[in-house]
Every structure is written in structure tokens, then in C-alpha cells.
From TrEMBL, chains A, B:
Species for this entry: Marinobacter litoralis
Active site: 148 (charge relay system), 224 (charge relay system), 257 (charge relay system)
Function: Serine hydrolase involved in the detoxification of formaldehyde.
Any one GO BP annotation for this protein: formaldehyde catabolic process
InterPro entries: AB_hydrolase_fold (IPR029058), Esterase-like (IPR000801), S-formylglutathione_hydrol (IPR014186)
Gene Ontology, cellular component aspect: cytosol
Lineage of the species this protein comes from: Bacteria, Pseudomonadati, Pseudomonadota, Gammaproteobacteria, Pseudomonadales
Name used for this protein in its record: S-formylglutathione hydrolase
EC number(s) stated in the UniProt entry for this protein: 3.1.2.12
GO molecular function: carboxylic ester hydrolase activity; S-formylglutathione hydrolase activity
Family in the record: Belongs to the esterase D family.
Domain of life: Bacteria
Length: 279, 279
């Protein structure tokens, strides 16, 4: 495994670094960012929070805008932020911001032309953690979080793989993608017209039938422009009620879909994950 | 005075807002951002920290990347971030990133074609605070801070107007612009070849002869690429020694010129200013 270091910035006593590597899962070169807290310099492995970003984002948005390094440094947690899709000139794309590059939706595409590269589900679940745990002082104690499309990805990955994650959280997740315009467009392209396969990538449908529980925290702004048409947190709440899933879902008056909302509550999310990661 | 609200985001219980207005000082339309902490909603006026950004920046960089809202909300301080130069199609510009738009250097230009719009010194000192204190629940208790070119601007404004600012701080300021490539290029264009007028915009030369002291805090990363050629904090230190100026200048091993450095130490700067603003 070879990885190339692209940048390094000291931050809160730890290090923010960007790397590129060739992904066998995605058949292309990929970039990711990692924040290593000061505790990772002591020869000890630190636990990891994987962060999945939303539509149009790269590895940079969360690292630059969430203000998360401060608490990660205090709690001794690494943060890993992958890109949001495969990248490169030969990777299929779409004119819309909500399909193709920057919009991988954390699924394994089965339909042409997407299936050649768009396998973000496998990349985030398997290849990326294996690389991180091989190359960095990061343990296999993993939690996962994300925003919007990335909140959907985090919930789906944790709900389908409860043995792999200690905890999951999301900001403003696309909670019921089979039932909203963003999800229908992306799943229709990546997974095809037969909607039966879509259920495995829908957090509300997965939570409804869940029997193994991963501690889950969701925060949602009530002034979010996408709340009623795209995000539908009420579907996740109803699903949790049905299966008895211990979901903590908080609504916040006045907050929108931006990183200002994430920054305002990222401390609570990091403290939530650290509770389970350090146990 | 009319101002137009361009955006509003709730952040840490307060509000981040962007506005545009016509500036008589700069003869063009300008954008600025303001963070109003929760305390500003109680009918009481809050004190203000004016933040001046560095080369190529707008009002957005600091607000999005510094993670400053958290402490501003805790301490009850408003933050005002102007743009870094006049803007618009009829505003003179240069091909370089270090002259013209995005590079106003917080001076009043005297040379054509710059003198028509480039009067950022007057804008930040007079027009902007007058507008802020007229239109928002913000008092005339003012502190000022900035990064790089903005650190230069903050120091110069406070050193020349000690009665107007309670405290000043800077990250990685251009400390002796008459003596570095960025400063020589900008001052040569804006102020002309006669270097006598340059001294009024040089923090080290001003500090050297200062007799009225504003509490001053400067932080500098030792892994900053611009440290020796452009920033020269040692000149500021020598000037402070000469005049007995109570300058606190801290060097930090491993930190670079990026916003990750600012984010790492912005809490200390806000606490520093709050000490003087709230007294």
C-alpha cells in the first residue's frame, strides 16, 4: 500500500494531513484527510471517527469548517474524512450537483456506467479503515458520523454493520432516501429501477427492522431548507419507535443546513462518540 | 444609510450575517460579515472585535474557518469582518494576488489609479464602525485583530489610534512592510515612490515611537513559510523593546500560516480582548 502525503498542518497540538492513494475498490486515485490528535504521537493507537460529507463536498469542508479539531485533540480521537465520490477524468459524471462526482451516496453502484467506480459503501466500510489502521497509529475502535448525504451514509453503514462501529451520529441526514427526490434520482441511477435493492441503503427502512443497536445521535436544524422535502427525520423517528431503537434525535430552532450548524454542535457529537470509543 | 442582508445563519445561539452596503469612503459597494452573539438579542449593546483578513480573503474566510463563534458567544463579543479591498468592475486591479483586489493593505492610497477606491484605512477606522454602531446592537467598545496583511492592518490602526481601540492582536502579521517584498510592492503602488509616507503604515516603525499603549498580543507560527522574508516579527519585538511597549509575542513550534493555526489559538485572542472590552 502506498500513500502520498499532500499537505500537513499543525492544529491544536496535533496534525491535519491530506493524502492521496490508489483505491482498488473505486478503481481511481482518491484523496482523504486525517486529523491525528496529540495523543497519537505517544506510540499509542487512538480511536477513530470517520466523517462522511454531503453533496458537492471533498475531504476539506469538514476539516476546515466544523471546528472539530479542538475536541478531537482534547478527547484523543482521530478524524478521517474521505472524499464524497470517486474522482478523475474517466469517472462517469452527471451535470447535476446531486449525481456523479461529489455525490457518491455511499452505495455500491450496480448499473452502468456507474458500477465501474462508484463503490463508496465498500470503500468506506473496508478499504479505507484497513489503510488507516495499517498506516497510522489508529485503532479499530471506530465511530462514524456525517452530514446530509453523509449522515445517510453514516447511518446506513452503522445499521448494516453494528459490529464494526461503536457509535453513529448524523447532522441533518437524508433519512429516508427511497422516499425523497435526491435519493430517488441517485438510487435510480446507481442501483437501477428495481427499487427492491434500494432498501439496503435507506436508514429508516434499516432502523425499522434493526435488532442489534449501535448508539445513535441525530441533530436536525428546524430552519433547514431541505427538511421536509429531502431529509424527513420524522421517518427515522417512526422507524426507531417501531424497532425500539435507542435513537436520540434533537431538533434545533433556527439552525439551517450549513456548517455553522455543524460547528455549533460538533462538541456534543465528539463527546458522544468518545464515550463509546474509550470504553 | 441602507444595508442589504445577504445571508443569515444561526451559530452557537447567535447569528452570522452578511450584508452589502454602498461605501462612500471606497466609492463602491462592499460586503461585510457580522457575528452577533446571543447576548446581543437582549436589548443590550455588546462590544466588538473587528477582524481584518489576509491577502486573497473576503469576509468569509475567518467566519467559516477560525472557529471563533464559540468563544464570541460565550464572552458576548460581536465580530465584524470586512472585505480586504474595494470590489467591482471599475475598481483598479493587478494580475498579482498581492496587489489590487483582495490586497488593499488597509492604507489610504494616494497614487493613481488606486486612490479612487483604495482607502481601506479610513473605511475600517471610520465608516464601518459608524455603520455597525448605528445599525446593530454593538457598542463603541472596540478591539481589533487580523491575520498576515490583516495583522499588519490591525496593528497599524491600533497604534495610530490608541483612543479608539481597547486592545489589539494579530496572527502572523506583516510586521515591517516597508522592509519586505509584499509591503514594498503594495506601498510602492498605493503610496508612491517617496517612502517617507510609508512609515505611517508600518507597525514596527509606529511601535518604536509609541507613547500611548494599547494592550497587544501577537502569535506567530515557527513553521510559517513567510516568516523570514515577509513577516519579520523580530522587528516588532525590537521596536517594542525600544519604546517599552507591553507587547506579548508568542512563537509556536510547528504551526504554519494557515487557518488551522488561527483556529488553534483564537480562544486565547478572544479571551485577551474580552478582558479589556468588558472592563
Amino acid at each position: 500500500m502506498t500513500i502520498e502525503n499532500l499537505s500537513s498542518n499543525k492544529s491544536f497540538g496535533g496534525w491535519h494531513k491530506q493524502y492521496s492513494h490508489y483505491s482498488k475498490t473505486l478503481n481511481c486515485s482518491m484523496r482523504f484527510a486525517i486529523y491525528l490528535p496529540p495523543q497519537a504521537s505517544n506510540g499509542k493507537k487512538v480511536p477513530a471517527l470517520y466523517w462522511l460529507s454531503g453533496l458537492t463536498c471533498t475531504d476539506e469542508n469538514f476539516m476546515q469548517k466544523a471546528g472539530a479539531h479542538r475536541m478531537a485533540a482534547e478527547l484523543g480521537v482521530a478524524i478521517i474524512a474521505p472524499d464524497t465520490s470517486p474522482r478523475g477524468d474517466d469517472v462517469a459524471d452527471d451535470e447535476g450537483y446531486d449525481l456523479g462526482k461529489g455525490a457518491g451516496f455511499y452505495v455500491n453502484a450496480t448499473e452502468a456506467p456507474w458500477s465501474k467506480h462508484y463503490r463508496m459503501y465498500d470503500y468506506v466500510l473496508n478499504e479505507l479503515p484497513a489503510l488507516i489502521e495499517d498506516m497510522f497509529p489508529v485503532s479499530d475502535q471506530r465511530s462514524i458520523s456525517g452530514h446530509s448525504m453523509g449522515g445517510h451514509g453514516a447511518l446506513v453503514l452503522a445499521l448494516r454493520n453494528p459490529e464494526r462501529f461503536q457509535s453513529v451520529s448524523a447532522f441533518s441526514p437524508i433519512s429516508n432516501p427511497v422516499n425523497c427526490p435526491w435519493g430517488k434520482k441517485a438510487f435510480g441511477a446507481y442501483l437501477g429501477k428495481d427499487t427492491a435493492s434500494w432498501a439496503e441503503y435507506d436508514a429508516s427502512l434499516l432502523m425499522q427492522k434493526a435488532s442489534k443497536f449501535v448508539p445513535a445521535l441525530v441533530d436536525q436544524g428546524e430552519a433547514d431548507n431541505f427538511l421536509t422535502e429531502q431529509l424527513k427525520p420524522e421517518m427515522l423517528e417512526a422507524a426507531a419507535k417501531q424497532s425500539g431503537y435507542p435513537l436520540e434525535l434533537n431538533r434545533h430552532e433556527g439552525y439551517d443546513h450549513s456548517y455553522y450548524f455543524i460547528a455549533s454542535f460538533i462538541e456534543e457529537h465528539l463527546r458522544f462518540h468518545a464515550k463509546y470509543l474509550n470504553s
